[in-house]
């Protein structure tokens, strides 16, 4: 994703990580590298300048808690998050969603991707086609919906009135949790299109109004976002084709300056190439932070015993907690090494053996399965059986045996956490020896 921007930024970060010393010259060079990368990604010059000033200021003047290299990298990470914005959260509840945007932006594909997203979360989506202009628009959407088994409505063939189609569609699909309305695109922001989407909005009152933007328009994204926001009040942005352009950074930073936030990004042509936008994870990937050993310190913070979820200490360890722990462990770098360092014996369960079998591939697979679970299932894994088990396996492209394996693994970790919190366990790191000390030994 964002190939060129990502490789340039990774290179600048690597330079800092390896720098003999951190002084004004190294920081100036880093800032110049970052400026070049961001300008190529079509980030607005004034924004690049502000970011540069802040990186210079904070890198050298701020009080450091980490070592100087880690401090500078952390500053870059935080300042990049600052310019791409936080993103918006889309609630997992029954609602109507209307998709708008210019011709070819990716509305129709995103309708199917969004339906798939909700499907994986255990909600029942259905899609309405309100594009009566482009020949084949309806067939395109129908085919996408058929592939994922999502119901589709496009009105009776003899009636091509958009407002009647959407209102009868909403009625017809009443029993579905999520109703997604695909609208027609135009080549430019023409008054007819704006009038039509305003009418559709009035007729259906959708809780979510998403604008779909092609990442390759870069800075122009803010102009479009503003125009659609004025017309129908945008509740979220979907930026598509992040896989095929260097300008995604420009698009993200431009919309961060408007009143609307990014909800999802499209990263490819298949229905699963779609992710909920989360700025921290996005920037970490962009900078390749997972690979940078000197960033271990950040993971160190995230595993600080003082931050351990109090519920865990009370013996309540949910799948969500497991997910976060796996994430944190992964951030710390070479997984095997960390596993080898954890003193895992003496708990009455044969953790040592089972733990060492958890490879990084398996972790990835666990995460995909957890993405297919609902909030309730993550909180109360006990309820996962029968049809839920099959749905999760289907949604994540795995087998029920694999989902069972995850549940078993979770149960084992839960048992371990319980014994630690009741003081029976032999796991010094959790009993007060800071994780930090252990990580330092590794360096
Ligand atoms: N690589 C890539 N291609 C995408 C992505 N999203 C959409 N596309 C492609 O972009 C093209 C246009 O997508 P559509 O979903 O038809 O766009 P639209 O906004 O519905 O277009 P109109 O209905 O004509 O206004 C298709 O070939 C899609 O496969 C993405 O995230 N990545
Ligand atoms: Mg379309």
Short description:
This protein is α/β, with parallel strands linked by helices and 443 residues long. It is built from 21 helices and eight strands.
Word description of this protein:
This protein has 443 residues and is an alpha/beta fold. It folds into three domains: 3-84, Up-down Bundle (Four Helix Bundle (Hemerythrin (Met), subunit A)), CATH 1.20.120; 95-278, P-loop containing nucleotide triphosphate hydrolases (Rossmann fold); 293-442, 434 Repressor (Amino-terminal Domain). Helix content is 55%, strand content 9%. It has an eight-stranded mixed beta sheet, with helices on both faces. The longest helix has 22 residues, at 400-421. It starts with a helix and ends with a helix. The structure holds guanosine-5'-triphosphate and magnesium ion.
The H-and-E topology, N to C, reads as HHHHEHEHEHEHEHEHEEHHHHHHHHHHH
The CATH H-level homologous superfamily of the largest domain: P-loop containing nucleotide triphosphate hydrolases
Bound molecule kinds, no repeats:
guanosine-5'-triphosphate, magnesium ion
Low-confidence stretches: 291-308, 333-354, 424-443
Mean model confidence by pLDDT: 82
* SSE-based structural type: alpha/beta
| Spatial strand sequence of the major β-sheet | 3-2-4-1-5-6-7-8
Q: Strand tally, please?
A: 8
Oligomer class: single chain
The CATH topology of the largest domain is what? Rossmann fold
